[in-house]
Design a protein that fits this description.
By secondary structure, the protein is an all-alpha fold. It has helices at about 1-40, 45-65, 70-75, 80-100, 120-145, 150-165, 175-205, 210-240, 250-275, 280-285, 290-305, 310-325, 335-360, 370-390, 395-425, 435-445, 450-460, 470-480, 485-520; strands at about 105, 330. It has one domain. Helices cover about 80% and strands about 0% of the residues.
Length: about 525
């Protein structure tokens, strides 16, 4: 009996022990940063030590929340295990930060406030500490709520709120903030439309064909080559932009060269694999597994190169202001600061990332490899298009918007197909059951164009039995199937909308608190 009670207690406290372990490891990392920053040569600045600890905290929250967008779809599609995704993302996020994170960063993220209106370097330091802590706190809250949000918007809101608290309303660049607000709509809509368009293309050219495997052998190498082109250009434009700035034409040309080589290899491999596979959607979907793994790695690399600045940028600005006593437009990023950012992202991903990975991968809509391919490709293409057009977009909003776009397209197609079946049965009123079943079997096996022709011919022959407009509306409501979780949709959209205001309000409160403690 005693052993049974002990076993029950252990099971009940198992999750709590895991949570304490994660919290302990996170605190250990923060303490290590404090000791390292305090032991650096010369007289250590307590402000820099505090800022370094907050920077590490911010980096961990970036890893916990933002990285899920890169690997979540691949995990949801079972192209990667959760453990494999965490390992790949951690390695490539850190590599992107250290290799291509850049040596210089803008001290004011996105130019949203005018540093000339900040009274002195001390006020600027307090401002950046408050912004960094506010952004990190909001990311932590969003992660606990299971809502993937933009880390860029979090730090932008923090800088805006602390900047207004320090310099008044005139310090803000409101036109720039308007562009950022527009990205709340632009990013998810673009990502969703592009992902849905590619999924529909796959369905039209492969899964809606009578010879699915033959269509797959023709189309999958092309689709994989398109992914290689998009990711080649994306990596050149975004992943290496801080060490090798190039024009969009050069980036697209690099992507085209990679795509040509990938097409040749993919065609050879897929033709071989196709001979051993059956003509089924599941077998075709598995052809996208390897491209998805590469996509997750490349997205993580580019994300580490770009978004590490959300953690180390304010820290580098604080370090520069402390050492020079002035406010500069650009600040160098010492290696030790970049290491804090890279390690923080990797540790945060390992400790707390799985929750958001599951949210993006499986708690919004059901994914397979084909759908995850469309989401990954949409993320790369949307960033390329937006960068060329000068549109401010969020990679988080793009990826999550793409997941929703795929889910809503599936809802539409499923409802449309159900209505077609009902119309067929309606047109066959009075016919023998065997006749109806035979027609439905031919309809099921037909290609998409053949389906359309069969329906037109059936309606022409049975015009008297056509459905009225009222009946069609009733069918639309009856066969509307929710394949996207509305609760997840509402929770995530609400988190997106309040990210900038909440982080801004937190930053303003923290700034006034810090200033009150620092003033004599």
């Amino acid at each position: 009996m005693e052993l049974e009670k002990i076993a029950e207690i252990e099971r009940a406290t198992g999750s709590g022990r895991g949570e304490f372990f994660r919290l302990g490891m996170a605190l250990l990392f923060i303490v290590a940063i404090m000791l390292f920053a305090a032991s650096r040569g010369g007289q250590p600045s307590y402000l820099l030590v505090i800022a370094a600890m907050i920077g590490g905290y911010m980096a961990m929250n970036i890893g916990a929340n933002d990285v899920a967008n890169n690997v979540g779809p691949a995990v949801g599609a079972r192209a990667l295990t959760l453990t494999g995704a965490v390992l790949i993302a951690a390695v490539f996020e850190a590599a992107g930060a250290l290799i291509a994170g850049g040596e210089v960063v803008g001290t004011i993220k996105k130019g949203i406030i005018d540093p000339a209106l900040i009274s002195n370097a001390d006020v600027f330091i307090w401002l950046m500490i408050a912004a960094l802590l506010a952004g990190a706190l909001w990311l932590n809250i969003a992660t606990l709520l299971g809502a993937p949000v933009s880390t860029t918007h979090s730090i932008v809101g923090g800088v805006l709120g602390a900047g207004i608290a320090a310099g008044g309303w005139d310090v803000a660049n409101w036109s720039r903030m308007g562009q950022i607000a527009a990205s709340w709509v632009i990013s998810p809509v673009l990502g969703g439309v592009i992902a849905a368009a590619f999924l529909y293309l796959i369905k039209r050219t492969i899964t809606y064909q009578s010879d699915i495997m033959g269509a797959a052998k023709r189309m999958v190498p092309i689709l994989v080559a398109v992914m290689a082109w998009a990711f080649g250009a994306y990596l050149v434009m975004k992943g290496f932009k801080k060490i090798w700035p190039v024009s969009i034409g050069t980036a697209l040309a690099c992507g085209a060269g990679l795509a040509a080589a990938v097409y040749v290899i993919a065609r050879l491999l897929i033709n071989r694999a196709g001979d051993r596979l059956e003509s089924a959607n599941q077998d075709v979907s598995r052809m996208f597994t390897v491209p998805l793994i590469f996509a997750a790695a490349l997205l993580s690399f580019a994300h580490g190169a770009n978004d590490v600045a959300n953690a180390v940028g304010p820290l580098a600005a604080i370090n520069d202001a402390i050492s020079s006593g002035q406010i500069a437009q650009k600040a160098a990023i010492p290696l030790w600061i970049m290491v804090i950012g890279a390690m923080g992202i990797a540790i945060g991903l390992g400790l707390y990332g799985p929750k958001l990975i599951r949210t993006v991968g499986s708690e919004i809509t059901e994914l397979n490899q084909m759908r995850a391919y469309c989401i990954a490709l949409s993320s790369a293409i949307t960033v390329i298009v937006a960068t060329h057009l000068g549109l401010p977009v969020s990679s988080t909003h793009i990826a999550v918007g793409a997941v929703f776009g795929v889910g809503f397209l599936r809802e539409y197609l499923k409802a449309s197909y159900a209505r077609m079946i009902v119309e067929i049965e309606h047109q066959h009123q009075g016919a023998d059951h065997e006749e109806v079943e035979a027609f439905l079997a031919r309809f099921e096996a037909a290609a998409l164009d053949e389906k359309g022709a069969m329906l037109k011919e059936l309606k022409r022959q049975k015009a008297a039995a056509a459905l009225s407009k009222k009946e069609r509306k009733a069918l639309t409501k009856l066969y509307r199937t929710e394949l996207v979780k509305r609760s997840a949709l509402l929770r995530i959209i609400a988190a997106w909308i309040i990210t900038v205001p909440v982080s801004g309000l937190l930053a303003a409160m923290l700034f006034f608190t810090i200033r009150g403690m620092m003033l004599p």
